[in-house]
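pls design
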C-alpha cells in the first residue's frame, strides 16, 4: 500500500492517522523479531511480551489516572469495552439513563437488553447547545436505576459533555456511571480514580494513537469486584480450574491478546506521556478553530453543533449544494481530502440535529499531526466546490 502524496486525512474521529513513527517501529519490531503470545510461553520471547504488555498497562494507568494497573483491561475496541460494561452489569428489569448523543456501541447493547430482558431506558435529549445538563439527571433517577451511561464527547458535534458534574450526581445516588471516552481518551485529560466514574470505555486506536483493534476498559475498585465477565476462556492462569479466574485483569481478558496492537499502543501512549495531552489538545483546538473560521465564511456551507461550548477536534457540516456522501466523494476524488459522511453510527444525534432525512452530515476531524497547511487546503477545496461560476 502506498500513500497518495496529496492525501489529507481528516477522519481522526474514526481512527487516528498517522500514528507516531515509534508506533510503526514497535509493531514491526515485534512482528519480525518476536511474535510470541502474552502470558502463554515460558521462554525469553514470551517474557519480553509479558514485560511490554504490562508496561503498556502501566502507561495507560499513568495517563488515565488509575492507581492500580490491573484495573486497566485490554479489549478489542471501545465497542468491546462498552459491551463488557453494559452486559456485565445489567440484569432483567434494571433501569438505565442514557442520551440521544450516544454512539450505537452504547445504544445497541442497551436496546438489545431492553428487547430481550426488559431493561428500561430513559434517553435524555441535549439542550439547544448540544449539551446534556446535569439538572436532567436527578429527575430521571428511579429506585431501579442501575446505570448511567453517557458519552464524554459527541462523535458528531465534538461537544464535550459535563461528565464530572453528572458523575457527582450519580455518586450521590450510588448509581454506577459508565463514561464512553472513545473520543476523549488521549485528547481530554482524565483522572479516573479521582473522578466519579466507575467504568471508562476507551478506544486504543483513536486519541491513544495505538493500532486498530485495541481498546481499554477502566474499572473502579467496586466495579472490579462486581462486574461479571461476558467472555470466559483461556487466560494462561489457573488452567486447572473450570471456572473463570477471579483475579484481575485475567478475569476479563480471555483468549490471546492482540499483542501487535498492544505493543503499538504502548508506543502511542508513551508518545502522549512524553508530548503531553495539554499540548496536543491546544494544537487540535487551533486546527479546529482555523477550520471552523474558514468554513463559516463560505456561502452554502453550514456548521452544525453549538457555539461557545468545549469541543474536541471534530466539526460537522452540511452543504446547500451537495448531500454529505457526494461532498465526501468530491473532496476525496478531487482534492485527496478524507472525511466521513453519514450518520456516524449515532442516529439519535442526527434525529436531534434534524439531519437524518438529508443523509446526516459531513464530519471533519483533526489529529495530533494535522498541519495549518492541510487546513488551508481543505478550506480552499470547500471554496472551490461552493464557488458560483
Ligand atoms: C463516541 C463513540 N463511542 C464508541 C465508538 C466505538 O469505537 P470503536 O470503533 O473503538 O469500537 C466510537 C467510534 O467512533 C465513538 O465515536
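designed seq:
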Amino acid at each position: 500500500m502506498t500513500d497518495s502524496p496529496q492525501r489529507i486525512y481528516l477522519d481522526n474521529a474514526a481512527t487516528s492517522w498517522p500514528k507516531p513513527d515509534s508506533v510503526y517501529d514497535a509493531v514491526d519490531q515485534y512482528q519480525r523479531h518476536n511474535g510470541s503470545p502474552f502470558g502463554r510461553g515460558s521462554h525469553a520471547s514470551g517474557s519480553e511480551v509479558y514485560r511490554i504488555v504490562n508496561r503498556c498497562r502501566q502507561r495507560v494507568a499513568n495517563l488515565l489516572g488509575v492507581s492500580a494497573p490491573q484495573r486497566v483491561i485490554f479489549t478489542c475496541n471501545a465497542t468491546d469495552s462498552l459491551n463488557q460494561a453494559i452486559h456485565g452489569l445489567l440484569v432483567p428489569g434494571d433501569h438505565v439513563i442514557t442520551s440521544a448523543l450516544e454512539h450505537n456501541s452504547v445504544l445497541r447493547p442497551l436496546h438489545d437488553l431492553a428487547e430481550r430482558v426488559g431493561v428500561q431506558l430513559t434517553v435524555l435529549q441535549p439542550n439547544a447547545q448540544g449539551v446534556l445538563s446535569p439538572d436532567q439527571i436527578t429527575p430521571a433517577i428511579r429506585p431501579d436505576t442501575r446505570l448511567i451511561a453517557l458519552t464524554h464527547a459527541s462523535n458528531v458535534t465534538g461537544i464535550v459533555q459535563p461528565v464530572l458534574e453528572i458523575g457527582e450526581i450519580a455518586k450521590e445516588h450510588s448509581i454506577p456511571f459508565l463514561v464512553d471516552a472513545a473520543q476523549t481518551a488521549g485528547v481530554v485529560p482524565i483522572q479516573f480514580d479521582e473522578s466519579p466514574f466507575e467504568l471508562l470505555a476507551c478506544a486504543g486506536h483513536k486519541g491513544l494513537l495505538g493500532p486498530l483493534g485495541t481498546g481499554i476498559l477502566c474499572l473502579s475498585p467496586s466495579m472490579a469486584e462486581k462486574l461479571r465477565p461476558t467472555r470466559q476462556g483461556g487466560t494462561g492462569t489457573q488452567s486447572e480450574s473450570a471456572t473463570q479466574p477471579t483475579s484481575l485483569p485475567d478475569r476479563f481478558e480471555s483468549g490471546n491478546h492482540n499483542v501487535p496492537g498492544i505493543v503499538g499502543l504502548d508506543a502511542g501512549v508513551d508518545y502522549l506521556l512524553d508530548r503531553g495531552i495539554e499540548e496536543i489538545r491546544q494544537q487540535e483546538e487551533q486546527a479546529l478553530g482555523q477550520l471552523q473560521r474558514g468554513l463559516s465564511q463560505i456561502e452554502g456551507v453550514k456548521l452544525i453543533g453549538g457555539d461557545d461550548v468545549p469541543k474536541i477536534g471534530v466539526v460537522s457540516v452540511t452543504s446547500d449544494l451537495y448531500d454529505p456522501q457526494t461532498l465526501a466523494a468530491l473532496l476525496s476524488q478531487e482534492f485527496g481530502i478524507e472525511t466521513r459522511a453519514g450518520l456516524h453510527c449515532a442516529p439519535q444525534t442526527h434525529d436531534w440535529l434534524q439531519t437524518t432525512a438529508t443523509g446526516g452530515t459531513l464530519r471533519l476531524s483533526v489529529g495530533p499531526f494535522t498541519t495549518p497547511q492541510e487546513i488551508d487546503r481543505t478550506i480552499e477545496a470547500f471554496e472551490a466546490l461552493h464557488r458560483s461560476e
